[in-house]
Amino acid sequence: MQQGSRFSMTTTEPTTTALAPVRRPLGLNGLTVRWECNKLAGQTAAALAREQGAVLLAHSALQNIGALSSLEAQLAELAPHGAERYQHIVDAYALSVAIRMARWV
Predict the structure, then answer these.
(1) HEC readout, 7-18
(2) 57: which residues sit within 8 A by CB, 6+ positions away?
(3) What global pTM score does this model have?
(4) How far is CA 92 from CA 6, 18, 60, 87, 88, in A?
C-alpha cells in the first residue's frame, strides 16, 4: 500500500479496513428510488384526476339544479297546484347529487 493513500489498486489486502461500512437508507437503491418516484407521480396524477372529476361533477350539478329550479318556477306559474311536487323533485335531485359528491371526495 502506498504512503498517504487509503486504497491500493494493486494489492490484495482488504480495502474496507480503513472505511466504515456503507449504510444506505433502507431500500434506496437506484431502482427503488425510480420506482418510488413513479409511484408518487402516479398517485399525484390520480389525486388530480379525482379532484378534477369532483369539480366537473359540482359544476354540472349546479348548472342542472339551476336549470331545474328555473323550470320549477315556470311550471309553478303555469300549474300552481303542482308547485310542491316540482319543488320536491328538484330538492330530491339536489340531495342525490350532494350525496354522490360526498362519496366522490
Answers:
(1) CCCCCCCCCCCC
(2) 97, 100, 101, 104
(3) 0.59
(4) 79, 77, 16, 8, 6
Taking every pair of Cα atoms in the chain, the longest distance, rounded to a whole number of angstroms, is 105
In a domain, 24, yes or no: no
Average pLDDT of each block of 10 consecutive residues along the chain (105 residues)? 50 52 59 84 91 91 97 97 97 95 83
Can you give the residue range of the structural domain that contains 41?
30-104
Domain assignment present for 90: yes
Q: C-alpha cell of 47?
A: 389525486
Q: Note whether 82 and 76 are within 8 A (CB).
A: yes
